[in-house]
Amino acid sequence: MPGFHSQICKSNGPNVTVPVLHVVQARLAYVAAEGELKQPFKDELPTRQAQLSTLQDTEEFDVLVVGGGATGSGCALDAVTRNLKTALVERNDFSSGTSSRSTKLIHGGVRYLQKAIMKLDYEQYMMVKEALHERSNLLDIAPHLSAPLPIMLPVYKWWQLPYYWAGIKMYDLVAGGQCLKSSYVLSKNKALELFPMLKKDKLVGAIVYYDGQHNDARMNLAIALTAARHGAAIANYTEVVHLLKKTDAGTGKEKVCGARCRDVITGNEFDVRAKCVINATGPFTDSLRKMDDGKNTNICQPSAGVHIVIPGYYSPDNMGLLDPATSDGRVIFFLPWEKMTIAGTTDTPTDITAHPIPREEDINFILNEVRNYLSPDVEVRRGDVLAAWSGIRPLVTDPNSKDTQSICRNHIVNVSDSGLVTIAGGKWTTYRSMAEETLDAAVAAHRLGGGPSKTVGLVLEGGQDWSPTLYIRLVQDYGLENEVAQHLAATYGGKAFDVAKMARVTGKRWPIVGNRLVSEFPYIESEVRYAVKEYACTAIDVIARRTRLGFLNVQAADEALPRIVDIMGKMLDWSDKKRTELEAAKKFLYLEMGYRSRSEQLTGTTEITLDTQEVAKYTNRFHKFDKDSKGFITTVDVQRVLQNISVQIDENALHEILNEVDLNKNGQVELNEFLQLMSAVKKGQVSDSRLAILMKTAEESLDLRGPVTVDRSGGGV
Predict the structure, then answer these.
(1) Ranges for the EF-hand domain (predicted)?
(2) How far apart are CA 119 and CA 10, in angstroms?
């Protein structure tokens, strides 16, 4: 069929499978897409309720996509820009799964190229080449959300220098004209100048190459919103209850013709009919395949990848690090991201769940690998972990392969007997080409028409009016802080002006508008209001995907939650739902973003490893607050000392500070709990404890009687 360039593998069964790679390169004709395509909702997106009405009232769609991750959203965008009547449903939020929990890289895969060369594997070579093309395209179509990032590969053996250099140069050559910047070799001194935290012992030099980096959840959302702008009916929190089928008059076989859906928020059920249903549910691929045919075997073999976030001072502002061979053969990236440092990932078998939890052993594995590459002068502490998360990578086997245990190295597209089109596997960078292959297969199998794909070069939401100096206009036109303006420009692109217009006056001389949600991050209250326009339905949507606060610092996110819930509550009429929303978001932070790991660092059984002098020192400090020798302190005791040194702290904030150390949750901190805290601080299990800093500062100031400012420094989990 014209425009369908993927190789099609026939098998003994009637199913059709499209393997990973383009054996013949896909059409690379760039289109001036914005000029050619209609955007019915260019000025204003339909509300979620309007989208649900469209899903219910439309007699029949051409395509119904199930799954709102990067691949599903990409399929919806590809379909609607082919002038196909398109719908998409997602049972949670857009990008709530694997697509928001990546390493944040847009890359071709250096290690895959190494394997391709070592094993003379042409398929793997072509996979890298395709990914490098998609990397270039993604950087072009979302310039506000993505940028090239230099990544350093430190070398500690002389013979490795030419070996790694040759491999990295080959990476540049495969990229060809789409090479971001040419790689280069650094001397030991220059490497340490650019990455001063690097371990210098036995370092012989380094190689720097370039890949792309992006804000993954916002990128996923931009794809989905772009599809909506072009007329796709998309709805989050809408799950598939079961597939609809009808008997084909010609063959007498049952064919999938839509899905019974449920609005998760209201419980309302309705049918969405479509000529073609696409299964793009990532790790949950097999659930939908078994809805189609209960006899289908599982093809998804899930693997968990854990990442951690530590303070930004652990890495340079614009230089990442690659550990090509960890102690167990895995690859670890160490990257600056959103002014923090992200490290990961692990790769361990896991069960499929919608709520993956980072394991303590994985967090410690990453920390140990980081220690191997950083200078001994830099103490890598467990307490410096600000957030941690686990993402499930949906590795797949080909359902038509004779070897059912053989894992496909990229992705597969499968059309079942009943016409269900499944796209499974793959990686973030190649979402667009995967979507194109999927729609090509769908068009061929269901005779949909609609023409070829038009998504190469199609600029995503916010990218059209973005420029590197856009933030200056935000500062000048609205009176926003410089840091806030830069953040808005990098998050919303040309739509940043819409967010700025919704910002409230601060009542200060400067900034004029833009009240921050928390002091140390540039997220402002108007982003919560704008998030509702972007289909945010819960507080979790805001802290995890509309902003990235939950991924950057769980304590800061926890602190911002009451205000976020208050703002959303007024917009979404949560008169009797605010407490439920707040508790759900706190649970999300506790389990999925690593807050639980923090509490496990300081428990009632934490061993006290202080020497005699340290015990005496900290006991004396404790008794300066426990004037009545009760054996415990409360907020009243702390307030009394603070008043003596002219310091004022909000009572609610003080309750939070004590609650972090109150292990038995009885409203007071006992001497033993305080000694356990100081022991954990000494061992690096806990860092920047607000109570520890507060009591130390107060003790030093008691004699001076001078004002002391106590700010929360970030805190660890």
Answers:
(1) 613-648, 649-684
(2) 26
Q: What is the CA radius of gyration of the chain?
A: 27
Candidates 3, 63, 28; CA nearest to 446 is 63
Crossing angle (nearest 10°) for helices 525-533 and 554-572: 60
CA distances, 13 to each of 85, 416, 442, 498 (Å): 31, 10, 18, 53
CB 411: neighbour CB atoms within 10 A? 24
Q: Is 514 left (phi over 0), alpha (psi -120 to 50) or beta?
A: left
Residue 593's DSSP bridge partners are none
Q: E strand or H helix at 413, and its extent? A: strand 411-415
pTM listed for this prediction: 0.85
Q: 643-649, long-range: CB within 8 Å, 24+ apart, which pairs?
A: 644/702, 644/705, 645/698, 645/701, 645/702, 645/704, 645/705, 645/706, 645/707, 645/708, 646/705, 646/706, 646/707, 646/708, 647/698, 647/701, 647/707, 647/708, 647/709, 647/710, 649/710
Structure token digits, residue 150? 């230099």
pLDDT digits (tens, 9 = 90+) for 308-333: 999 999 999 999 999 887 777 778 89
Beta-strand relationship, 269-279 and 254-263: antiparallel
What six digits make up the tokens of 245?
Answer: 């089928």
CB 5 within 8 A of CB 413: no
DSSP annotation string for 27-91: P-----HHHHS--TTSSSPPPHHHHHHHHHH-S-EEEEEE--SHHHHHHHHHHHTTT--EEEE-S
- Separation of alpha carbons 414 and 344, rounded Å: 31
344: left (phi over 0), alpha (psi -120 to 50) or beta: left
The number of angstroms, rounded, from the C-alpha of 68 to the middle of its chain's C-alpha atoms is 14
Cβ atoms 127, 272 nearer than 8 A:
no
Q: Using alpha carbons, list the distances in angstroms from residue 221 to 106, 228, 437, 466, 495.
A: 16, 10, 21, 17, 13
Residues of the chain predicted below pLDDT 50:
1-35, 403-405, 706-715
- State the Cα–Cα distance between residues 436 and 6, nearest whole angstrom: 10
